[in-house]
C-alpha cells in the first residue's frame, strides 16, 4: 500500500489514519438540526455542488463521493452560488471535457474570492490523478486534489481542509490484495452502478486510462453477488450496471469471468435487469456470447467499441483485433440472441488516417448495422503513445470526416429504428422531458432505446416515475422514439 501525500503524513488507503477521528451525529437542541461531529470539528448541514466530466465510471464515482459526504452532513445542490464546497470530478480522456474543466476551475476564482473560507474547492478524477500536485500549486483557490483511487477517503480529506490543513494532493494507487470498491448508491432510484473491475491493461495508444486508473484489479464474484443482493433487498434496487474500463477482462486474476458473474446474479429475486459496460472486443469470450442468449435478466443491448474499420488503423491504435474478428463477434452475438441491439464507439482521424482507411470505417458501419454510435474526432492526450506520432491530418479534415460519418450513420439508424414502430416494449420510467411544449414521460427499454410517451388522457396527473410500463411505439426517427402508453405494473415487477 503506497500513498503520496504531498508534504503530509500519509493516511492508509481505505483505512483511516489514527489521527483522523470517526464521525458521530447529534441533534442541536437550539436549531433542531442534525450536526455531525468528527473529533473537535462540528459539521452543520452544508451544500456541495459537484461537476462531473467524462464517462460512466466518473458519474458513478460522483455518486460514491456524494454518498460518503452525506455522512459529513453535506447534501447536493444545483446552485453553485449556494455551495459550501465545490468539487470537480475530472476526465482526462476527452479533450473537450478537459478544456471545460480548466475553464470552469478558472471561473471559480471569483466565487472563492467572494466567499473566502466559506467555500472549499476540490478536484478529483483522472486529471487529479496525474496532475493533482501541479493543480494545487497552480490554482491558488484550489484547496485539495484527489485521485481516482482514494474516493473512500473523501471525508478524511474534507475533515483535513476544515481543520485548516489545505493545499494537498492525494493520488495513491491501492496495491493491497484485499482491495474492494465499495458500492454506494444515491437513494431514491432503483438503478445502481456496481464497480466490478478497476484499471485497464490494454494500453490502446490513444488512451490515458491505464496511466490514470492503473492496472486491472477485479472484485470477487461472491462479494459482488452479496452486494447486489443487499441492494435489492434493502434499497429497492432493480437494475444494475456492472462497470469497469474493460469489464470483459473481469476476474482473470481469480480464474473467474464476467459470464459467470452474470449467471450468478440471475437468481437474485427482485433484480430485474443487468447491464454492463465497457467492453473490449479482444476479451469478448464465447462463454460471454453464450450468456447473451441464456441469461434472462441480461439487457438486450451491448456496447462494443470498435474505434475503426481499418485493420492498419486498429494496429496503430494497438486494439489487438481486426475488423473481420470484430464483425465475426457481432455475428455470433446475433446468433446467440436475435433480439440484441448493438452500439459502438468510433474515433475518426487517428494520426495519418488515409481516405482509404476512413472509407473502411464507413464500410464497417454498413456491415455492422449499429443501433447508435458515439463518434469523436481524434485529439491527442498527453502521456499517450499516439500523441508522439507524426501526423499529417488537419483538424479541418477530421471535422469533415466526423460530420460525414455521423450523417452516414443516421441514415443506417433511421432504417433500424423504423422497425420498432408497432412493437411493444417494457420500460422503466426514469423522468420527464419537454418536447414541443408538451411534458412527456420517458423510459429506457431493455435494449437501451429511450421512448417518450404521454400518460393516458384521463390520467394526466398519474405519477409514473420509476414505474414499469408497457409502451407501443407509434413513431421512430434516427434520434427519437414516441410511444403510446398501454399499462403500468407499478414500481416493482417482482419476477424472479
Ligand atoms: S481498453 Fe483501451 S481505450 Fe479502453 S480503457 Fe483500456 S486502454 Fe483505454
What features would you describe in this structure?
This protein has 496 residues and is an alpha/beta fold. It has three domains: 23-170, Methylthiotransferase, N-terminal domain (Rossmann fold); 191-416, tm_1862 like domain (pyruvate-formate lyase- activating enzyme, Alpha-Beta Horseshoe); 424-488, Beta Barrel (OB fold (Dihydrolipoamide Acetyltransferase, E2P)). Helix content is 31%, strand content 24%. It is built from twelve helices and 22 strands. The chain has helices at residues 56-70, 95-115, 126-138, 154-162, 209-213, 221-235, 258-265, 286-294, 311-316, 323-336, 355-368, 395-418, and strands at residues 23-27, 34-38, 41-43, 46-52, 74-76, 85-90, 120-125, 144-146, 168-170, 191-195, 197-198, 217-218, 239-243, 273-277, 301-303, 341-348, 372-377, 424-435, 438-445, 450-454, 468-476, 481-488. Strands 5-4-6-7-8-9 form a six-stranded parallel beta sheet, with helices on both faces. The protein has a five-stranded mixed barrel with strand order 18-19-20-22-21. The protein is globular, with a radius of gyration of 24 Å. Bound molecules: iron/sulfur cluster. Iron/sulfur cluster binds at residues 200, 202-204, 207, 209-210, 245-246, 280. Iron/sulfur cluster binds next to helix 5.
Amino acid at each position: 500500500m503506497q500513498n503520496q501525500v504531498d508534504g503530509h503524513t500519509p493516511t492508509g488507503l481505505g483505512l483511516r489514519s489514527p489521527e483522523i477521528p470517526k464521525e458521530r451525529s447529534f441533534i442541536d437542541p437550539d436549531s433542531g438540526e442534525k450536526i455531525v461531529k468528527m473529533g473537535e470539528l462540528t459539521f452543520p448541514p452544508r451544500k456541495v455542488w459537484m461537476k462531473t466530466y467524462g464517462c460512466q465510471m466518473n458519474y458513478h464515482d460522483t455518486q460514491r463521493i456524494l454518498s460518503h459526504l452525506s455522512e459529513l452532513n453535506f447534501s447536493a445542490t444545483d446552485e453553485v452560488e449556494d455551495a459550501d464546497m465545490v468539487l470537480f470530478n475530472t476526465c482526462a480522456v476527452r479533450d473537450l471535457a478537459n478544456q471545460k474543466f480548466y475553464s470552469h476551475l478558472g471561473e471559480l476564482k471569483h466565487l472563492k474570492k467572494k466567499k473566502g473560507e466559506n467555500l472549499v474547492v476540490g478536484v478529483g478524477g483522472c486529471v487529479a490523478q496525474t496532475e493533482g500536485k501541479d493543480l494545487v500549486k497552480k490554482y491558488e483557490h484550489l484547496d485539495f486534489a484527489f485521485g481516482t483511487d482514494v474516493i473512500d477517503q473523501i471525508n478524511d480529506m474534507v475533515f483535513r481542509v476544515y481543520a485548516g490543513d489545505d493545499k494537498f494532493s492525494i493520488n495513491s494507487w491501492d496495491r493491497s490484495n484485499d482491495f474492494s470498491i465499495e458500492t454506494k448508491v444515491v437513494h431514491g432510484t432503483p438503478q445502481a452502478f456496481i464497480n466490478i473491475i478497476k484499471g485497464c491493461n490494454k494500453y490502446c495508444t490513444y488512451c490515458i486510462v491505464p496511466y490514470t486508473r492503473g492496472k486491472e484489479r477485479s472484485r470477487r464474484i461472491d462479494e459482488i453477488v452479496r452486494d447486489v443482493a443487499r441492494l435489492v433487498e434493502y434499497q429497492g434496487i432493480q437494475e444494475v450496471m456492472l462497470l469497469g474500463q474493460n469489464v470483459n477482462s473481469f476476474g482473470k486474476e481469480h480464474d473467474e469471468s464476467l459470464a459467470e458473474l452474470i449467471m450468478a446474479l440471475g437468481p437474485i429475486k427482485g433484480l430485474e435487469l443487468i447491464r454492463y459496460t465497457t467492453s473490449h472486443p479482444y476479451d469478448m469470450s464465447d462463454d460471454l456470447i453464450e450468456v447473451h442468449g441464456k441469461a434472462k435478466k441480461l439487457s438486450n443491448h451491448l456496447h462494443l467499441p470498435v474505434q475503426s474499420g481499418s485493420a492498419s488503423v486498429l494496429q496503430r491504435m494497438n486494439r489487438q483485433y481486426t475488423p473481420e474478428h470484430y464483425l465475426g463477434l457481432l455475428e455470433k452475438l446475433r446468433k446467440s440472441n436475435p433480439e440484441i441491439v448493438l452500439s459502438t464507439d468510433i474515433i475518426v482521424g487517428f494520426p495519418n488516417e488515409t481516405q482509404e482507411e476512413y472509407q473502411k470505417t464507413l464500410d464497417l458501419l454498413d456491415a455492422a448495422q449499429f443501433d447508435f454510435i458515439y463518434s469523436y474526432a481524434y485529439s491527442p492526450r498527453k502521456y499517450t503513445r499516439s500523441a508522439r506520432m507524426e501526423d499529417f491530418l488537419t483538424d479541418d479534415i477530421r471535422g469533415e470526416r466526423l460530420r460525414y460519418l455521423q450523417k452516414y450513420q443516421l441514415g443506417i439508424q433511421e432504417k433500424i429504428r423504423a422497425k420498432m414502430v408497432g412493437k411493444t416494449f417494457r420500460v422503466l420510467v426514469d423522468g420527464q422531458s419537454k418536447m414541443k411544449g408538451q411534458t412527456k414521460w420517458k423510459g429506457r427499454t431493455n435494449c437501451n432505446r429511450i421512448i417518450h410517451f404521454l400518460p393516458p388522457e384521463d390520467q394526466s396527473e398519474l405519477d409514473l416515475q420509476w414505474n414499469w410500463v408497457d409502451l407501443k411505439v407509434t413513431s421512430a426517427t434516427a434520434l427519437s422514439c414516441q410511444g403510446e402508453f398501454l399499462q403500468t405494473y407499478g414500481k416493482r415487477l417482482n419476477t424472479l
